[in-house]
Protein 1
Amino acid sequence: MKVSKLTLSFIFGLLFAGLASTSFAQSSEYKLDGKTFGMPEAEVFTEDYDGPPVVGEYVTMLPNLAPLDYEGNKHHEVRIDIMVQEIEVAEGVRYNAWTFGGTVPGPVLHVREGDRITFTMKNRSDEEVTITEPSKGGAPFMQQVAANNISKNKAAVMPMPHSMDFHAGTVAKDDKWRTIAPGQTVKFDFIANYPGSYIYHCGTPSVLMHTAMGQHGVVVVSPKDGYPTDDEVAKEYVVVQSEYYLEKGPGELYQYDFDAAANRNPSHVVFNGHQTVMHDNPLTANEGERIRIHFSNNGPSGTSSFHVIGGIFDRVWKEGHPFNEMRGMQTVLVGSSGSATLDMIVPEEGKYILIDHEFVDAEKGATGTLKAGPRKK
Amino acid sequence: MKPWLKYLLAVMVLATTIPSRAQSDRVFVPAGSFHSVLPEIKGEPNKVDAFYLDVTAVTNEEFVDFVTENKEWRRSEVPSIFANDSYLDHWKSDLDPGIEETGAQRPVTRISWYSANAYCSAAGGRLPTLNEWEYSAQLLKFESPEEMNEFSKELIGWYSRVNANFIGAVGSTDIETAYGVKDQFGLVMEWVENFKPIIANDLSLDCGTVGRLQKLGNIYSYAASIRFITRMSFSPESTTGMLGFRCAYDVETKDTTKNSL
């Protein structure tokens, strides 16, 4: 009988819906060793939101880092939505990237140790979202992308479940890092308890595929008491290394190469998401200046032996924590999802090359340019 | 009246029988067994009884016929508990799919599990079970394990390449099982009756899941695990631009229909 069948169907449907809303143990906030733990339960909901996909005063496009123009701690409201964008990763190589905020890597979030972040993310992989037009209420990131559309973005649609895993957060992953379906939004709080540069990435399986498809970025957490050389730093940049595993598809576009990813054989290893972006738009400084690079290796699978040709890192803070200071390093080994904060004194006017000294990676693209002008009197 | 009771009554009212697909659009899939990527009793494959399955996914054209006859399932009428906001929102209007844009022969997408159920029920069938769908999907003809791996690698590549704005027509993939079922891969994702098996809770969607799902030790199971994980994220009211469906039919149902003709 049709009626009872449909009724049954509906009841099964309700059951499924029930399964989706598993309840989590409720934590209450507590402090330990100067750090704050115990965040409220994440919320998953649907919202009628079609505003700017990236929101937050201190959210920028690589290699920029927003200056922290406030004292002490701040409560940040940040949104980074998930979208599919056709982007360029090297001349003639375009693919449908799965992105946070529309770019690969995603936007840089800058906060201070101890800051609270209320994070909202809508899975907009099932809608066309244009990110290259400046939008009211959007983060500085939006204006920067509009002004410098290096990947020549085009909106695309490929609905997939996704999630957000901030390494800067210390929370229960089955609550905050929950996978959300296309059209859903997740909202949660975390406290940036530890200083340093922390990767974020999609944690939905296959993590290898989701990350390699472009879902990663960086949160820079500045130490509450700073680094000892802060007053001498003239310029600060963020450089992210990552791999692509692409092969030519049947049409114009490239696609994910399963074999290459499974065998750690990237087609491209890049700084800031594009094979030549850091040569086309070099980092700039002047002779005699101290510059700081927040370097993160977002993988998904490779290591980086980061070096600057012609320079020595005066100070290195492994993972960006001020306690982890080393001096006089020629090359810094950074594993997948690791980072380092690096100070370098620019010795002379001229050109310096940032490079992954694992030369196979360098020749696949992991290089960039630092252009130094004359010494300022 | 309790609100949920109202909804149940609404469902009952919606149950109208309009056979939308011709008998020739379905094929017989004989009983058999297959290994799932989900945990199973060691060495014991999942047994599946014989059933009929649509050759292709339901098209925009066919779904227009259905909503014409069953106005409760039109975009403007469907209760929000039965479908998300994006239900058929790529169509021009309730009864105009905008064929120039969406294609008469393209699979209908942005339909919920509820609406797919109602359609199949009206057509004298039901959604295929997870096991039926996966069993049929494994009835592709491969000459060697290498050929199967090559196919699966291409399938994973397809996931990374496809743009839901440019889906092909049904039958366009050239992917066909030994029994003539077309496009189970390479066109859209498809609803199944029990898309979120109970085991989904235990598996949890974390980064070890793909590894644990790879029971068969080949790329096929990797591709399958992506499919399972995507399904598990859905709710019955989910509607996406890559999610369509086809119907299955019990063997008895088919026979009954035949006898009555």
Protein 2
Amino acid sequence: MILHSKAAAHGSLTICGARVLDPGAGVDALLDVKIEKGTITELAQPGGKKSAGKAVEAEGLILAPAFVDPHVHLRTPGREDEETIASGSAAAAAGGYCAILAMPNTSPTVDNAAVLGALIEQAQEEAQIPTGFMAAISRGLKGEELTEMGELADAGAAAFSDDGQPVRSAALMRRALQYAGSTGRRLALHCEEKTLSSRGQMHEGAVSAELGLAGYPSVAESVAVGRDLALAAYEGQPIHLMHLSTSESVELLRRALVDGVQVSAEVTPHHLCLTDEAVRTLDTNLKMNPPLGSETDRLALIEALRSGAISCIATDHAPHARQEKDVPFEAAPSGVTGLETAFAALYTHLVEPGLLPLETLLDRMSAGPAQAFDLPVPRIGVGEPANLVLLDLEATWLVREERFRSLSANSWLLGEALRGEVVLTVAAGRVVCGSERVTA
Amino acid sequence: MAEIRVIAGETSTVSSAPKRHLISIDDLNREIVERLLATARNFSRSLEREMKKLPTLRGRTIVNVFYESSTRTASSFELAAKRLSADVMTMRASGSSVEKGESLKDTTRTLTAFQPDVIVVRHPQIGAPKLIAETTSAHVVNAGDGKHQHPTQALLDLYTMQEALGHLSGLQVAIVGDVMHSRVARSLVQALNLVDARSICIGPPALIPRGFEQIGCEVSSDISGIETADVVYVLRMQQERIAAGANFVPSLREYTARWGITPARLRPGQVVMHPGPVNRGVEIDARVVDSPESLITTQVRSGLVVRMAVLYDLLTQGPVSLAPTVDMNEVA
């Protein structure tokens, strides 16, 4: 078992009259979707006889497979003031997600089975949606000794990652690839050559030159991507590249895919929507690692997402306490929240302007990440577990701190009006968001 | 940035009216720069009198907050305030609650409780003056924030050039040295652009930031590029750039040999400037520092009258308007 959430009774529910859109299953039709005991039991023409039980009126809305986020920081254990499993999974539910994977760079690090086991138990108590946990590649994320990956995999580790830190040594990366292969779990890699990124505060370019902020050159990512792709190819092992941000990395990924390297990759909403120009405001909610790139980078990422070279959208939801971001830019930690705004941000910034088809966005937020991590792929079909998101594409809403279910509000979208709203989420057969829409 | 006129209203009490600040050269336009320089010239004449104090800002309170060591900027702001009869208080980070871990915003709130009219701030981190401006009801003047901006330095440099050479438009200025780590270079290039002067930045390749030419200057690693300049503006070479392992340049000796400003590299008629403090024999030959072509001590004198002009403009209801920001007390 990779995903864990609190046990709950499943009732029956019919979602009536939505446009059901599951690009992977080839479904695009107006249908009533009936759920019983957590499973989709019937897809029927709308307007049929009213079945008994609860219902949601969904005419004019889109019903799609719920989203999967393979890159979330739940800050537990250690920084429960910033996020907990309960609050982070509730935020995910509000964002339309039916599964999330949490990163192991907590305090203590998730680098042994005892810490992992405690997290899984806690998720079974309080996770609103199915939640999985990655374990560290190296003990304490120090990049020196491998964790006991076999035991961690047996204890339920979803994958392995030193996220927040690159695996500095090429030799250790090679050993990790060799060993992880025996566990059947993938390595999720944060690619950064630290001697190049150094103390970089933002993308190196004209904006950093003008502001005087230390530059983080795009090659700091791409030389690490190149190294890890070469090692993955040599060892014949799969890797997942996290939060790609540069056109150079995209080009390396494309060539590796042609060469048959087993590689999947993700991109964040902020790297798809923003460039380094935004950093001129010195808003600390625009500080992230890797940093926001150039417009060339952004367009390359969008094209790779469209073509499928990048198959996953991951939020890299990184909550930070208010006092930690309420400081000068250089003193602020990297990272922004994203679970509750991902769909609307991407619908507003990519789909509405015609840069990405809606179907592609839905696929990259759901089936893409699920497949990359061998998680159950959310599908809308009879006999499938009910993992559904109901979307109102006409709705416009204002991103406000009070609305967040996350314990942190370090969002780059505060104050922005977004198009596209999640109105209902069903995760593992349970309504986890939008229950007020359900009528008896 | 377009000039936005703001009627200066209540300045000493907390109000929600937009405040005028000087955070960056971006806050200015040519008209404002010329007005500030003209005001500075008037103050310069008043300082020639035996009685140097003016009653202009009597009853006003100016707080200098220096989170970074400074000799000329701190003393120049302090004296500028005193020459205008303002009450002035200078706080340094060492020995203050900053050392006890107080956040910048909380320190600002504390100082704001004393109802200062102006807060002058020097801080090692980029954007600190902006953060203060968003937190206080006082006007904020940036006296240097990290590697970002040092707008009063750029203004005093313009003033110095204009006084020495008679004009600014069409001047060619070569800025030599560690451009990467210099807030002075950033502010000066932008200020020179505002007055139609041209600049070229010359230094070791690793010390010229990638993309710097997009600010509006030429860049080069060839020292012979200073030949056509009217003004050779020498930047301070900081010791830590030469520290073992930094590798911005191989050695101090190599830097001095290739980019040091010596009498032999200058041609007659060129003037030399430096924001100080000077490393004699490193970025600039001692003979050049002490030569009649050197305007280095003139720059310090200019600093006084230019800072008087900035404080005056912020605190009087004159037509000069620096950039307003929305008072964040309401939304924070």
